[in-house]
## 1
Amino acid sequence: MSFIYVPPIAGGGMAASWTAANSALTAQVGFNYAANTSSSAFTITLPAVPSALEAVYFQDARGTWGTKALTIGRNGNTIMGSSEDLVANTNNSGFGLIWNGSDWRIF
C-alpha cells in the first residue's frame, strides 16, 4: 500500500508530547512518533491487539521519507482495508491511524 500525502497537522496529531523513532520499534497507542529516517529506512509495527478508538500518530522528523521511507507494519491487521503494510514516502508528511475495532483507518 502506498502512502497518500496528508499535510502535517500543526501541534501534532494527538497529545503534545513526541517520541523519537530512529529505528524499528513496536508502536504504542496514544503516542506521537517523530520518525527520523535520515540514516536508513525502517519499520514501525502497529500493536497486534488494539482496543477500539485507540490511535497513533507519525510525523516525518527530518523530511526524508521520500528517499528513505517509513514502513508501518500492520501486525496481522488491515490498514484502510488492505492486507499490505503502509509505506510513508512523502517528505515532511504526517498522519495518524485509529483502530475502529476491525481496521486501522488513516486520519
## 2
Amino acid sequence: GGGGSTNHAQFDMTNNTGWLAKTIANGSSCPVSFTWSSEEDGNSTGPGTLTIKSGGVIKTTMNVDQGDIEIDLALYCSVGRNSLRVSLSDAYDNTRSVNFTITVEEL
C-alpha cells in the first residue's frame, strides 16, 4: 500500500497586532501585522498565500513573501460587528489562522 504525502516544513506565524477585538470609527483604518516563515531542511519554501474571510466568504486572497506583513482589515469591514479570519498558507498548504472581531461604528 502507498502512504500519504508528508512534508517536514517548519511553519511559523506570529500575530504582532496585540489584540483580537477592536472598535473603530467608520472610515478609520484597522492595521494588523504578522511575521511568518516556512522552511524545509533549512531552506525557505518561498512565498505563501494570505486569505481573508468574513462569514465564511473569501474577501481577498494574495501572494505574500515571508517575513513581516501588514494589512488593513478595515477594507473588508462594514458598519456593525465583523468577524474576520486571516489565514496564511505555505507552499505545502500548512496553514495558520487568526480570528479578529472588528466593530465599526458611525460617529
